[in-house]
Amino acid sequence: MYRTAAVALTLAATLVTGGVLAVGGGAQTTSGQTIKLVTKNFHYAFVDNPPKARGRNGRPGIGDAIAFNAIATDAAGKRVGSLNAVITVTNGTSKGRGVGHAIYALPDGQIHALFLTTLAENDALTEVGSVVGGTGAYVGARGTVTSVDRKGTANGDPSDDTITVLP
């Protein structure tokens, strides 16, 4: 299936650099914050909007969508939140692309991110997106999300997501 990074655009481990579990702090801190997540157990749904793409060339077409969710854990495997995302296909060729909106739901708020993502399955695909806001401790958040599929895994499951919230 297809993935972002978080996407997942996934994006996606909630481990502050230095090894201390900390999802809190938010975008208001003066030093910024790095959150590391492992996103796994992805569930996908493909929405084939007209004209029908699957029978014609086997690829998603412009306007089709891929929705997915995953759990987010820290490096030790403890669940700390979830990832929910939708990718809208903007280029349905063999080098397909899509715009992804990902929301990381964490104990102290949500982090919203946007990605321009690749729709092909690649081993160890890396996606980089922008943090565009959030809720709770992350109101006004800005920064980046980097999602890296683990080499040799199917559909980016699991992936390692690093969220950098700028001061």
Structural account:
- It is a single chain.
- The chain has 167 residues and is mostly beta strands.
- It has a single domain (33-165), classed as AOC barrel-like (Beta Barrel), CATH 2.40.480.10.
- Helix content is 0%, strand content 48%.
- The protein has an 8-stranded antiparallel barrel with strand order 1-2-3-4-5-6-7-8.
- It is globular and about 50 Å long.
- It starts with 32 loop residues before the first strand and ends with a strand.
Q: Can you tell me the CATH architecture?
A: Beta Barrel
The CATH class is identified as: Mainly Beta
Distance between the termini: 36 Å
Largest sheet: 8 strands, antiparallel, barrel
Quick structural overview:
By secondary structure, the protein is mainly beta.
Task: Provide the descriptors you would attach to this structure in a database record.
167 residues; mainly beta; AOC barrel-like; 48% strand; disordered N terminus
SSE topology sketch:
Elements: E1 33-47, E2 65-73, E3 79-91, E4 97-106, E5 109-118, E6 126-134, E7 143-149, E8 159-165
Antiparallel strand pairs: 1-2, 1-8, 2-3, 3-4, 4-5, 5-6, 6-7, 7-8
